[in-house]
Write a structure and sequence with these properties.
Layout lengths: L3 H6 L10 E2 L7 E4 L3 H17 L15 E6 L3 H5 L3 H4 L3 H11 L3 E7 L5 E9 L2 H4 L3 H13 L13 E3 L6 E3 L1 H10 L7 E2 L3 H8 L6
Parallel strand pairs: 2-3, 3-5
Antiparallel strand pairs: 1-8, 4-5, 6-7
Helix pairs in contact: 2-7
């Protein structure tokens, strides 16, 4: 069981601000840069996490067509060379420079509607040697989990949202993170919130009493 402080930390950014948002519309995923087998695994993981959240998926988004876009690249420089990516990511060249300098393997950018809810998520994965040896199921589940909510930018810096079952080797979503996702999508909870007291409401829905 997470403590209230641990719940709050999941949505407290490196600058100290509390920022929470969830999807306010059905999720419509599209994936670029993978083969059909991997595509099936990715969409299966997204569907599983959306089902966990008791949220919905759809065939198309009325504004964007697809609102959860996942791009796989070999090198961040590919983004600069890809048509229309600069329309999704403001100041793309500077972003790519930062990603290259940090040797990052993942990057996410979110858009929000007038209510502050997630309107779209653009997720990018650079398949370096370390990522390439991971099972597709592990990468897919991690991507889906990190796109379902606006987590803190440092939420999973020290501990992955995933865990490996002892003896079986299967990768699963950590139960406490699954609980947060379910609680966040409770209909009585707000679409977005910047008050840390929101974390206490999440905690209450985990069965906590403190």
């Amino acid at each position: 069981m997470l403590t209230p402080d641990q719940v709050e930390a999941l949505f407290t950014r490196a600058d100290g601000s509390y920022v929470f948002a969830r999807w306010g519309r059905p999720i419509v995923p599209i994936v670029f840069g993978v083969d059909d087998a991997t595509l099936s695994v990715l969409k299966g993981a997204i569907e599983a996490v959306v089902t966990l959240a008791n949220h919905k998926m759809a065939e198309t988004d009325p504004e964007l067509g697809a609102n959860l876009m996942v791009f796989f690249v070999q090198d961040w420089a590919e983004l600069v060379e890809t048509s229309n990516i600069d329309q999704l990511i403001p100041d793309l060249a500077a972003v790519v420079e930062r990603l290259q300098a940090a040797k990052a393997t993942q990057y996410r950018a979110f858009r929000f509607d007038e209510a502050g809810a997630i309107q779209a998520c653009f997720s990018f994965v650079r398949m370096d040697n370390a990522m390439a040896v991971l099972p597709a199921e592990t990468i897919a589940l991690s991507l889906a989990v990190q796109a379902i909510l606006l987590w803190s930018d440092v939420a999973f810096a020290e501990q992955s949202p995933l865990a490996v079952l002892p003896g079986e080797g299967a990768t699963i979503l950590r139960p406490e993170i699954a609980g947060i996702i379910r609680a966040a999508f409770d209909p009585v909870m707000p679409l977005a919130d910047r008050d840390p007291s929101h974390a206490l409401r999440l905690f209450a829905r985990l069965g906590g009493t403190g």
